[in-house]
Target: Disease resistance R13L4/SHOC-2-like LRR domain-containing protein
Amino acid sequence: MFNLVHFLLFVLHHLLQAQALTLPQDISALKAFKSSIKQSSIPSWSCLASWDFSDDPCAVPRRTRFICGVSCSPDATRITQITLDPIGYSGQLTPLISQLTQLTTLDLSDNYFFGRIPSSIFSLRNLQTLTLTSNSFSGSIPDSVTALKSLETLDLSHNALSGKLPKSLNSLTSLKRLDLSYNKLTGFLPKLPFNLLELALKANSLSGYVSKSTFDGLTRLEVVELSDNSFSGTLGAWFFLLPSLQQVDLANNSFTHVEISKPAGSNSDLVAVNLGFNKIEGNLPVNFADYPMLSSLSLRYNRLRGAIPLGYSKKKSLRRLFLDGNFLIGTPPAEFFAGDTEVTGSLGDNCLRGCPANSQLCSPRQKSYAICKRAYSGKPRS
Model:
């Protein structure tokens, strides 16, 4: 008897789903969304081509209409996700998308959407994932983005966005992943959301110092990618002591100094650091050797001097080391050239003596004596 009742309830549930009607405001928003896209950019086999409004978008089962691109709530009355196939749809994002008030995911990545991101989109308070990467959106990022309190992933990378970052970015308290790389953003880094796990702002025109107040309270931050910007000044010792930090890429900026302290209790998850192509002066930071899991380190093409710390060669976790393009002197540690060494990279284009010519680590060849002499205002010391 129980199984029969259970079966009848199951059938009734699916019959109700089949008869359920999507809320009219959601249907009108979907119609506006599709009509804003150039018909010539909608292939006959695409998700959008299957959006035929002679059927209800949330009707179950789906056979030939609305076969992909949209997802609905369990009661089949509301649109909860729009995830388009990346085939080159072209058009502008309609402001009427704000009618989809139960939308949790909007993913339009790898298409040809253009124009400004409508500010009305930031009224979607249930939005958790906003992915507009690899399109042609322009204009600034509206301050109203900070109203999305449920947002966990924001990816606007590979567009043509300009202007400054929203000042109250830290009010996105649920945000875990932020990627605004490959745009035209300017200005300073504002205070960041404290739940952030991954930060990517590569290839913009951001400038100023990387300050402790910006990263204050970010105890979960694992990945920081700020390469190809114009950040300058000193990178303080506090940065590499962020408790969950694993990967750092700050290459191609204008940092002049870096301070490295030993991790507390020799505990750190730091695995990879790229500080190449900056203007960093002084000696190689000895304390990098005290980060127990560090396997990749690049300080290439800076203005570093002095000898290579012996600790670098004794570090068993280190697999990739790029120190080329500096003014390092002395003889590199013999451990780098032992038969069982697993270190790859480059010590070339320095002022080193006795770097074995048959070792790949010593390529390219060292700077001329004349260049090294000028760099040290006289004879380079060992």
